[in-house]
Amino acid sequence: MSTHAPMPAPIVPAPAFELPSGYPGHDDAAYLTHRAVIAEAAHGHLPGAEPPHIAYTPQDHACWNQITHALAPLWRKYATAEVREAMEGLALPTDRVPQLAESSRRLRELTGFSFAPAAGIVPLQDFYGTLADSVFQSTQFIRHYASPLFSPEPDMVHEVLGHGATLASPRFADLYRQFGAAARRAETRESLKAVSRVFWFTLEYGLLGDPGSPMAYGASLLSSYGELQQFRQAYICPLDVRRMVTVPYDVTEYQSVLFAAYAFEELEDFVGAFCAGVDGDTGDRLGVTADQRW
Ligand SMILES: [Fe+2]
Fold first, then answer.
1. Residue 138 is among the residues annotated as catalytic for this protein
2. Residue 106: per-residue pLDDT
3. Does domain 29-42+57-286 have CATH number 1.10.800.10?
């Protein structure tokens, strides 16, 4: 029998995590600690390993349930057929937050893509570059439960639901890989900005179909409860690289200018031609300036 008194459990300080003032959950200590734990798990992740298991809270699950059920009728009305078919294949749960590992396994079976956990904002070159390797870097947190229909940050709703819808389609997945390969050849900040802008107006905000009543395939639209109901009020243009890289842009507002392809083949030809031509001079050729926002 030991004569030693039991040692008290070491006090492990909660990792620090902050959100900007005004962000939902910025003053919720339990949520911030939860976010810190999730970010820490991503920091410890090794490339190629399965994403870590996250202990989602009942509030997380309720939040996912609410946003997926709110988006479902909007997707039936506004999402392209390719997206809706791909989502059926991905078969995400609606009543609970999916683990990134299970979504990643299913995605790999469908298109060869997988999800890797990201602790926070990933530098553009790194984010796009890994797309060439069929890896999509995704956050693992979900927005605060007090704001289920809006998040100022790209959370799992944006990444797994929004991007997952196109990553689960072989034809869209190939476009992601082409952007990845283009980013690796971009060499200069200006050329990378051009890649980022064309990605933005296609795989984030792209439309397909008749410009009078186009359907959405871009992840940012698909994951936005508000903007998915209003995107047809934007000024809708045909695909145009020069316009995409120079059009004024405000991240805090709904997009005022969007780009639609009549058909999937047109989108594939457009992205294929742009990405194949990207090199270190692309930014200069298109008039991208060093002080232009991404
Ligand atoms: Fe995105």
1. no
2. 97
3. yes
